[in-house]
């Protein structure tokens, strides 16, 4: 069987969990040296040039199954709580109430790190993914601030809730997918793919015999 040659190159990826790193590299035949580790420690101004970014932020703070803390940060010194997206990016790491840098950040703060990398490198386009609840009533303002900031950086934004069961995976799994494209490159022709039913059901892929 002829293997189709990839017409893209992975520049870097970020993962601080050693087991997840080894799994990712083994599955996708990627060298571990490309891992930049904890994205919060990455200097966004010194990255190798890239034209596409793909990622998301941990879903626990937005998920119905999680604690739903959202993107609220808390100052450890004065107790002030604030959404970092409501603060100009140049002042986000300081408490807007007392100027302290001793901030307790939720895991969804990676959403802000994602914006930081985009702002400094301006890739041509990118993909962001998260749970459906991020566009629900409780967090829709946070999501709007996120998309508004992408637009401020010069991108057009397209997003939609897609379900894995409509794309060949026998699982009811709804996720928000957001695509952003540099305005000067966007031809206004982007559309999300139409769903389909390939006939595969869960019973078709469950193994009869498994290791205990």
Task: Write a structural description.
Helices cover 19% and strands 17% of the residues. By secondary structure, the chain is α+β, with helices and mostly antiparallel strands. Strands 1-5-7-6 form a four-stranded mixed β-sheet, covered by helices on one side. Strands 3-2-4 form a three-stranded antiparallel β-sheet, with no helix packed on it. The mean pLDDT is 88.
Keywords:
alpha+beta; 212 residues; three-stranded antiparallel β-sheet; globular
Task: Give the helices and strands, then pairings.
Layout: H1 18-28, E1 52-56, E2 73-75, E3 81-82, E4 103-104, H2 110-121, E5 125-131, H3 140-152, E6 155-163, E7 174-182, H4 202-205
Parallel strand pairs: 1-5
Antiparallel strand pairs: 2-3, 2-4, 5-7, 6-7
Count of strand segments: 7
Strand content: 15-25%
- Class of secondary structure makeup: alpha+beta
Order of helices and strands: HEEEEHEHEEH
Q: Shape, please?
A: globular
Spatial sequence of strands, sheet with the most strands? 1-5-7-6
N-to-C span:
34 Å
Give the % helix. Answer: 10-25%
Rounded Rg: 19 Å
Mean pLDDT: 88
Count of DSSP helices? 4
Q: Give the uncertain stretches in residue-range form.
A: none
User: What characterizes the major β-sheet?
Assistant: 4 strands, mixed
Concise synopsis of the structure shown:
The protein is of the alpha+beta class. Helices cover 19% and strands 17% of the residues. Strands 1-5-7-6 form a four-stranded mixed β-sheet, covered by helices on one side. The chain has a three-stranded antiparallel β-sheet with strand order 3-2-4, with no helix packed on it.
């Amino acid at each position: 069987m002829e293997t189709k040659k990839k017409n893209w190159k992975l520049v870097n990826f970020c993962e601080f969990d050693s087991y997840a790193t080894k799994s990712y590299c083994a599955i996708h035949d990627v060298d571990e040296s490309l891992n930049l580790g904890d994205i919060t420690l990455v200097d966004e101004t010194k990255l190798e040039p890239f034209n596409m970014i793909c990622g998301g932020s941990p879903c626990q703070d937005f998920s119905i199954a999680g604690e739903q803390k959202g993107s609220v940060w808390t100052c450890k010194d004065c107790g002030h709580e604030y959404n970092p997206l409501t603060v100009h990016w140049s002042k986000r790491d300081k408490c807007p109430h007392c100027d302290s840098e001793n901030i307790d950040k939720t895991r969804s703060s990676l959403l802000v790190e994602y914006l930081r990398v985009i702002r400094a490198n301006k890739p041509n386009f990118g993909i962001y993914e998260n749970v459906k609840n991020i566009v629900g009533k409780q967090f829709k303002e946070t999501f709007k601030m996120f998309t508004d900031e992408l637009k401020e950086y010069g991108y057009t934004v397209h997003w939609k809730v897609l379900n894995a069961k409509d794309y060949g995976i026998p699982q009811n799994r709804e996720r928000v997918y957001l695509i952003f494209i540099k305005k000067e490159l966007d031809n206004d022709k982007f559309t999300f793919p139409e769903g389909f039913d390939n006939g595969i059901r869960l019973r078709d892929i469950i193994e009869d015999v498994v290791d205990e």
